[in-house]
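Progress against Task 2.4 (sequence-to-structure conversion) is shown through the following example record, which the project officer requested during the mid-term review.
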Amino acid sequence: MKTIRIKTGISIAVLALTLFIIACSKKSATDNSPQADGFDKGAMLTNYADNLIIPAYTGLQQQIALLETSTNNFLTTPTSANQLVLKATFKTAYLQYEQVSVDQFGPAERVLLNSFLNTFPADNAVIDGNITRGTYDLTLNSTINQQGFPSLDYVLFAPDALTKFTGGTAANRKKYVQDLISRMKSLTANVLNTWKDTYRADFVKNTRSDAGSPIAFLINQFAYEMDQMKGPRIGWPYGKQSGGVQYPDKTEGYHVGISVALAVENLTTLKKMFTGNNSGKGMSDYLVALNKKSLSDDVLKQFDIAIGKLNAIPDPLSTALVNNKTEIEAAYREIQILLTLIKTDVASATGVRITYQDTDGD
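Structure tokens generated for the chain above:
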């Protein structure tokens, strides 16, 4: 019954993001943005688009292409040596994905990029059925936990994965992997091309803070990512929503054992986005212009504390859940503090309404 609770939670997270999409699509008639004299919000948004978001999606596209090449080499000759090379490429691509995880608005939310590329845990039983039958439709929303990085993690790196690529379902298995990567390539290209072709221009010129504006998207996504850190990435596997019952196999990047590395990359990217990559044109600088320097400093300090606590947890997280409970508990507390600062204080200071529903109701 508790296992169902965890899986339901992941579904709620997806639903919450969908509700966020719907809510943020409605713009208010009046711009109630707080005034920050002398601060160029248009320049800030241009910095986000040109120096952070578009390069991050470009990087993801490049890493998926490299992953495809490495995967094809493995599928042609499925040896342990080639699997080891593939694992390194997979890790790099997955870490790159964390750099766009915070950018799930606009073109990304329209195609549900995060849902299709990183809904975890994957549904291993259904994936096995897909492979055995050789029939599936990865465009259906109901298949989000049968594709993306978590599904590749299972199909390519589960303990018995190597032997299955030379077994009776090898041909279907190889095609499934190729179809997964093709789907990832297509979705990523769609998002990147839309940013370049049309969305960037709309993004940089809308300097309001009401629902549906880029600033509102950014603040909401900062808070949403922190909720995901508190929930699916750390809290849920640790047992925070299941009466202390742990679910090590529900961690992100479970089979390759990089759950903590992914969490650190996610939070480090979140800080990079918050500061605008220390360009003087980030959300932290906007807060200073709003006479909220102490809040900006508090958030930056808390980022460093939380990242430090996460770094103290050794990978794989599935093992650390048992052997490093003190470190995980410490990281969880600091993540909660950072979540509150962003979701409550930063949102209030910037005049942004949090429009998504969190994943655990607290």
